[in-house]
Amino acid sequence: MVRKLSSDRVWRWARGLLGVVVAATVVVVGANIRLWTVSSGHRYSVDAAPSAPTVIVPGAKVGPDGAPMAYLRGRLDVAIELLRAGKVREILVSGDAAGTSGDEIASMAKYLVEHGVDPALVRADGEGLSTRATCERAKRRYGVERALIVTQYQHVPRAVALCRAEDLDADGVTAYCDCRRTTVIRNNIREWLAAPKAVAAMLWR
User: Which residues touch 149 (CB under 8 Å, ≥6 apart)?
Assistant: First the structure.
């Protein structure tokens, strides 16, 4: 009798756990579908990107030497291409000026200048601590009404959706990624799991 009760308890626990996993999976998948749907028609390659007054470059990890790492470097390189092609008139770098890996803003600004960008064309937001904050501050603090936002493909749907939720007319441009496979996998997982929070922010804005 004791063995049967114990077995029943384990089975109920397993079914409950399975239900939680299924529910969580549905939420995550549904949120990702929502972001891809909202950003549909607003995602471009570098060559196909439309014009806009401003290109926004969200921050990312910098190296021990203060230089941009692969993810951030890929975003900056695309922003430079867009500027040189005449598709944008200025670059807004947005990130954490006091990040755990270093000053993202100083790193981005230095990289741009070293690659021939006129410092007068670079604006900096050192309090873009999240994608949502970057979009909100670009609109409210810096007066950006229309922009391109450059980031890696797995981040583009979330970035575009959050910016457009802030009434910022934004299109996403896919950045380069000369990254290790583990980095790509880790960031893909991160983006998938970040989707529900982004959708909630959009709904409760």
Answer: 55, 56, 57, 58, 134, 135, 156, 159, 160, 163, 170, 171, 172, 173
